[in-house]
Each structure stands twice: as C-alpha cells, then as structure tokens.
Amino acid sequence: MGHQTGTFMGASDTELFYQRWNPSSRSRGVLVLVHGFGEHSGRYSYLVQWMLERDYTIYAFDLRGHGNSPGRRGHINGWHEFREDLRRFLRLVEAMESPSPLYLVGHSLGGLIVLECALRGLLGLRGIIACAPAIGRPPVKPGLMQLAWVMSMIWPTFSVKVDIDPSKLSRDPEVVRAYKEDPLVHNRASARFGAQMELARSWTMAHAREFPFPLLMLHGGADKLASAEASRVFYGRVISRDKELRIYRGGYHELHNDIHREQVLEDMCEWLEEHTGA
Q: Does the active-site annotation cover 152?
C-alpha cells in the first residue's frame, strides 16, 4: 500500500493540498473523498484503511480554508470556488487513474458539495455516496443566519465561531478526543460562507429530481448536526431508480467514525461492488 501527498491548482490558482492512497493489489476503482466543515482529509484514516484492504484507490483534498490548504479559515468568496476546486481535482484524478471507475464520496459539507456539483454537471462518474449531507437547514439560531446574509454584502470576511459540539460527532470517545486535540480542526465560518452555503443548499434541494448518477445516501438516525429528514426528502425527490438510502438507528454525524462504522463501511462496499461489477 502506498501513500503520496501533493498539491493542485484550484479556482483562482489557489494551490490546494491533496492525498492519494493506493492498494497493494490491482485497484477495483477510485474513491474521491470530500470532507466536512472545519475538518480535513486526514480524519478519514479508518475509512481509507478499510477501502485499501478491499483494493480501492482513494484520493482526498483539503478544501480551501481548511486543513493543510491555504485561505482564511472557513471563508469562500463564492460557492463556485468549491465547485471549480472539485472539478479540477477530478480532472487530475481522471488523468492519473483512467479508465478505473470513479466515485465521489462526500461527508456533511462535502456531501452538499458533491450533490450540488453532480447536479451542475459532471462527467465520467459511476456514482455518488453522500454521507450525512448538509442539505437541511443548519442547526444555528435564525438570527445568526440573518446576520450572515447582511454581513455577506457589507463585510463578507466577517467571521463567527460555529458552535459544534464534538460529542455529537461520534459515540466513540476516542474520536471525540482526537477531534478536540486536532490542530488542523477549526470552528470559524465567514458571513459569505454561511450565505453561499445556504444558497447552495436551497438550490440542491430544489433540483433533486434532476439527479443524474447512481446514488447512495447514508445518515445517522440520531444525527444532531445534519438533518436525516432532509436526506429523506432529497432521496424521495430523486426520480432515478438507481438510488438507495440507509438510516442507521442511533447513528451520530460521522458514520465512518461511529461505533457501528464496520456495518456502514460494509454497506458502502456492497453498493460499490454492485456498481463496479466486482
């Protein structure tokens, strides 16, 4: 098994950090991971190791303003930056891995990004896996969202602390401890980020019926950070029959890091095998 790191040019020629893991045997397919808000690609070690042992190649990059990538923490000038960053990363992966089947896997904010980008038009994908996608109304006070809309116009970089309770991420205390101690984790979001995320969320939900790829949605039934009901609504609107939704009773936000992660990853592998023909 091998591991490499590097950078690629995202939107506005921003140099973003990425990682690649390749199995020791011939690859069944390629997974491109997009992480959640405030975290980074290095927090997916359990998922990565699981998939490597089942002969999948994994790519992941740190979103701008996150992890090892540059930028003001939790800030974007516009949602198009996330979209263009992902497009460029996919072109890099395709150039290196073609003709291997390619899948997008997004968690939380990353789940919203991959769903929105898929609806905007992507080519060459075999399917999308959205884990606890942030497509429901955010769990913040209404006044804070109103403030974000106003400040986004007059002071877009105005930043506030996002109240994320680490104990709601996972029922595994070691995962919670590691999150608290991780120097690359942050909890800042700018006014422009909040306003743009809300626009992307609303547009994505409104266009769910147009979803063009095979879709697997995974959500924890006890997720307090992203709405499982929103995943149900989105899933119900998708017209394609090649779709699947799994709600895990008692599951928290980070299904890949929760105490039932083996079952979650087994389900993910089963779906991948059905779609790769393995």
A: no
29/15 Cα distance (integer angstroms): 26
Domain-by-domain residue ranges, the chain? 2-276
Domain 2-276 has CATH 1.10.357.10: no
Residue 140 has pLDDT above 80, yes or no: no
Catalytic residue among 41, 69, 100, 108: 108
Q: State the CB neighbour count (10 A cutoff) for residue 91.
A: 12
Q: C-alpha 172: how far from its chain's center?
A: 21
pLDDT of residue 142: 66
Q: Residue 136 above 80 pLDDT? A: yes
Lowest mean pLDDT among 47-56, 132-141, 182-191: 132-141
At residue 79's C-alpha, the angle toward residues 73 and 85, to 5°, is 80
Peptide bond into 212 cis (omega under 30): no
Active site residue 108: yes
Chain CA centroid to CA 190, Å = 19
Does 25 participate in catalysis according to the annotation?
A: no
The single residue of 227, 253, 256, 258 carrying the catalytic annotation is: 253
CB-based contacts of 105: which residues, under 8 Å, 6+ apart?
A: 31, 32, 33, 34, 114, 128, 129, 131
Ramachandran sector of residue 248 (left: φ over 0; alpha: ψ -120 to 50; beta: rest): beta
Q: How far apart are CA 12 and CA 230, in angstroms?
A: 32
Sign of CA dihedral 103, 105, 45, 273: negative
